[in-house]
Design a protein that fits this description.
The complex is a heterodimer. By secondary structure, chain A is of the alpha/beta class. In chain A, the strands form 5 sheets. Chain A has a 7-stranded mixed sheet with strand order 13-12-14-15-17-16-22, sandwiched between helices. Chain A is globular. Chain B has one domain: 3-Layer(aba) Sandwich (Rossmann fold), CATH 3.40.50.970. In chain B, 42% of the residues lie in helices and 10% in strands. The longest helix of chain B has 26 residues. Classes of the chains: A alpha/beta, B alpha/beta. Chains A and B meet through strand 5, strand 10 and helix 10 of A and helix 2 and helix 12 of B. The complex binds thiamine diphosphate (TPP) and magnesium ion (MG). Magnesium ion binds next to strand 5 of chain B.
Chain lengths: 474, 349
């Protein structure tokens, strides 16, 4: 029986692609592992390998075909060994192995997690559509009226922020694993090596503790390193330098030595990468005096805040999110858009309850706000953007207006950013509260791999809706 | 190229291993395999290869998610080492661990079901591709942090010494990992305390998109223990017989209480680093050349044909292996996902 070669999926989100080129013609013999075709998606080109030895019996989808759905048969391979194959078997279907997407797998796990709301939503959540549009920036004062905007992905906004600051200041340089020749493990540094050369875009060995120390040492002398961690999970190798060397030196030295350095990279849950590669470090770093911690949710905030971070004379922990890299948003055009560190943004004004979140948590918060609006509930959604220093002023002003608060984050619930917000609100606005504060967070477990468990470990918009209703006693 | 370097194999401490460390021509090396051993090695390497090909397919169909690092091309390393070990010896490795699970004798179904994140996976679906374990088979995982397996392996060896048993731990890591600081901290302790550990550097020439030359000031990783007085050897990691020979010497050395050895296995991965890999850092020709001229399975196959084993016998092995892999895949696709209650189990005991 011939084997059907199927259009492969490169990541759980890929639905279709273009069959760019056949490298083998009909009738040619192929060996398992031979590259037989190239396919393209909007972001990546990849090679399709034969999955068996045999003969490429038929090409079912000609080169140049666009919009080929994943799992469509694209060719037939006839085994060399037809007689030997177990004839009882039906036509084997097999997606070829793939190589070469330019992007690590991305998907959007979105379901229930632990809610510490007074009441808990137990209704099973459904898969939501991926958020393709990040919320718009709304602090009108930050963007002058009439400013021309461009639509960009978070990925492009981050790259532009670094490129602009590197053009502006020759002391700024980028170092990290795969930031140069490979163009960034998540393609954030695309094009930077070409523009700035090897002196300023530096590929490091896999030695986080070492290169972080090198970065901090360079910063002591006044250079302004941007240290990229492939993900923040690996910064645990280097956390000693981030805290003991970078965060404390200005204080210990009585103000004589500074560490103007930015540590950045993707933080938080990615998709299906399990416990050691999927966790949120927001609270870990927000705990540390001597650091500033930023976690943007939109391309505009990412750009404006990364530029501010690079210019800031303090050590900055800049927490990005892999799942948001591909989201689009409007970003002010030009290279002079810098946002203030330490200012939250009111992403949606409302009067019935305050929802405070940051980073990917904003996806759930804003989706919940839309759902609640349909029930006539008008929530105010605050994007913290900076986690240290926390903009409690904005949060408290909102709570004084709505008298209710729900925090939303993907991190573990114990000693989290939400815990801190709730504590501050209880201490400073107790009399303004009409209900106990509620927290929505990730589940209090290491991230599981199984698709169903992973969904259960992450928060959902439905949980946010339930938490808001609970603080409204609905 | 891996094989060129490997023929210049040397031991840092010539006293140890002696001439046996010098591999002879491609065939007929010291401690050559018997025909049955070759058949066994062939079957095992083929099983890993077919398993990985199937895993690649299941990934392409969306049944496996996240990171999935295939072992294709490196089969001889783990199979040869396992043949050098004794029952009770231990193994620890990083995320490229499917081959290790199979070589240590884990059940194929439980490995494939872990890849699909199902209930009867070896880690109950909670660990996935990078986090498989079978302590009953001496296999301590399956770790995602580059470099971590050197001290962890030394720690397993420490426990052996502490208990006074004669077990040896084989700790694997990559050429990229060989630059991590903790590897050297582990080297120092392992030699200082004469721990029964064999460090295996699986030098497949690349750490993601970075070639060893771009990341390492010195590229002879077998000598990375010299300043700690740890002997090292370069081994042709594509030749399962040479792997076993070098592995046997190092394991015996460790078992006799003489401490660690570093074996640098010159090998090559055919596939991308993980399933997503732009592969711009090497040419298609380079990969093709390795596959055509240094394939570990083809090498042993040629020797088997020379031993008088017939094509038909080899085909029969191939068929059996495919059946096993297909059965594992069927199981892994039909096994249910973990029960929702398992989300919160096993956090603490
Ligand atoms: C501490 C740490 N840093 C970075 C990574 C990301 N990463 C995963 S594999 C890898 C390359 C490792 O290469 P190598 O050690 O040669 O092993 P190979 O993948 O070739 O088997 C990197 C950088 C990680 N998992 N852990
Ligand atoms: Mg490597």
């Amino acid at each position: 029986m011939p084997i059907e070669v199927l259009m492969p999926a490169l990541s759980p989100t890929m639905e279709e692609g273009t069959l760019a080129k056949w490298l083998v013609s009909e009738g040619a013999s192929v060996k398992s592992g031979d590259v037989i075709a190239e396919i393209e998606t909007d972001k990546a080109t990849m090679e399709v390998e034969a999955i068996d030895d045999g003969r490429l019996a038929k090409i079912l989808v000609p080169a140049g075909t666009e919009g080929v759905k994943v799992n469509t048969p694209i060719a037939l391979i006839e085994g060399e060994d037809e007689a030997a194959t177990d004839s009882a078997q039906p036509t084997a279907k097999a997606a070829p192995s793939v190589q070469q997407p330019q992007e690590p797998p991305q998907s959007k796990p979105e379901q229930s997690a632990s809610t510490e709301a007074p009441q808990q939503n137990t209704a099973p959540a459904r898969d939501e559509a991926p958020a393709t549009h990040a919320p718009e920036p709304q602090n009108a004062s930050e963007i002058a009226p009439g400013t021309e905007m461009v639509s960009q992905t978070m990925r492009e906004a981050l790259r532009d922020a670094m490129a602009e600051e590197m053009r502006r200041d020759p002391d700024v340089f980028l170092m990290g694993e795969e930031v140069g020749q490979y163009q960034g493990a998540y393609k954030i540094s695309q094009g930077l090596l070409e523009e700035f050369g090897e002196r300023r875009v530096i590929d490091t060995p896999i030695t986080e503790y070492g290169f972080t120390g090198v970065g901090v040492g360079a910063a002591f002398t006044g250079l302004k390193p941007i240290v990229e961690f492939m993900t923040w999970n690996f910064a645990m190798q280097a956390i000693d330098h981030i805290i003991n060397s970078a965060a404390k030196t200005h204080y210990m030295s009585g103000g004589t030595v500074r560490s103007p350095i930015v540590f950045r990279g993707p933080n938080g849950a990615a998709a299906r990468v399990a416990a050691q590669h999927s966790q949120c470090f927001s609270a870990w770093y927000a705990h540390v005096p001597g650091l500033k911690v930023i976690a943007p949710s939109t391309p505009a905030d990412a750009k404006g805040l990364l530029k501010a971070a690079i210019r800031d004379p303090n050590p900055i922990v800049f927490l990005e999110n892999e799942m948001l890299y591909g989201t689009h948003g409007d970003v002010p055009k030009g290279d002079d858009f810098v946002l203030p560190i330490g200012k939250a943004r009111i992403a949606r004004a409302g009067k019935d309850a305050t929802v405070v979140s940051f980073a990917r948590g904003m996806t759930y918060a804003l989706a919940a706000a839309d759902m609640l609006a349909k029930d006539g509930i008008d929530v105010e959604v605050i994007d913290l953007r900076t986690l240290r220093p926390l903009d409690m002023e904005t949060v408290l002003a909102s709570v004084r207006k709505t008298n209710r608060i729900v925090t939303v984050e993907e991190a573990w619930p114990v000693c989290s950013i939400g815990s801190e917000i709730c504590a501050q609100v209880a201490m400073q606005a107790f009399d303004d509260l009409d209900a106990p504060p509620a927290k929505v967070s990730g589940a209090d477990v290491p991230m599981p791999y199984a698709a169903n468990l992973e969904k259960l470990a992450l928060p959902t918009a439905e949980q946010v809706v339930a938490a808001v209703k609970s603080v409204l006693y609905l | 190229m891996a094989a060129e370097k490997a023929t210049r194999s040397r031991s840092a401490k010539p006293a140890k291993g002696g001439d046996a460390a010098q591999p002879a021509a491609a065939t007929g090396v010291a401690a050559a395999f018997t025909r049955d051993e070759r058949l066994d090695a062939y079957r095992q390497m083929l099983l890993i290869r077919r398993f990985e090909e199937k895993a690649g397919q299941l990934y392409g169909m969306g049944h496996i998610g996240g990171f999935c690092h295939l072992y294709i091309g490196q089969e001889a390393v783990v199979v040869g080492m396992q043949m050098a070990q004794q029952p009770g010896d231990q193994v620890i490795t990083a995320y490229r661990d499917h081959g290790h699970t199979i070589a240590t004798g884990m059940e194929l179904k439980s490995v494939m079901a872990e890849l699909t994140g199902r209930r009867n996976g070896c880690s109950q679906g909670k660990g996935g591709s990078m986090h498989m374990f079978a302590p009953d088979k001496g296999f301590y995982g399956g770790h995602g942090i580059v470099g971590a397996t050197a001290p962890l392996g030394a720690g397993i060896a420490f426990a052996n010494k502490y208990r006074g048993n004669d077990r040896v731990c084989v700790a694997y890591f990559g050429d990229g990992a060989a630059n991590q600081g903790q590897v050297y901290e582990a080297f120092n302790m392992a030699e200082l305390w004469k721990l029964p550990v064999v460090f295996i550097v699986e030098n497949n020439k690349y750490a993601m998109g970075t070639s060893i030359e771009r990341a390492s000031s010195t590229t002879n990783l077998s000598q990375r223990g010299l300043s700690f007085a740890i002997p090292g050897e370069h081994v042709d990691g594509m030749d399962v017989e040479q792997v076993r020979a070098a592995g046997s010497r190092a394991i015996q050395f460790a078992r006799e209480g003489k401490g660690p050895t570093i074996l640098e296995m010159m090998t090559y991965r055919y596939r991308g680093h993980s399933m997503s890999d732009p592969a711009k850092y090497r040419t298609r020709e380079e990969v093709q050349h390795m596959r055509e001229t240094h394939d570990p399975i083809e090498m042993i196959r040629a020797r088997l044909l020379g031993d008088g084993v017939s094509e038909d016998d080899l085909k029969a092995i191939d068929r059996k292996v495919r059946d096993e892999v297909n059965a594992a895949a069927d199981f892994a696709l039909s096994d249910p996902e973990p029960d929702a209650s398992q989300l919160t189990t096993e956090v603490l005991i």
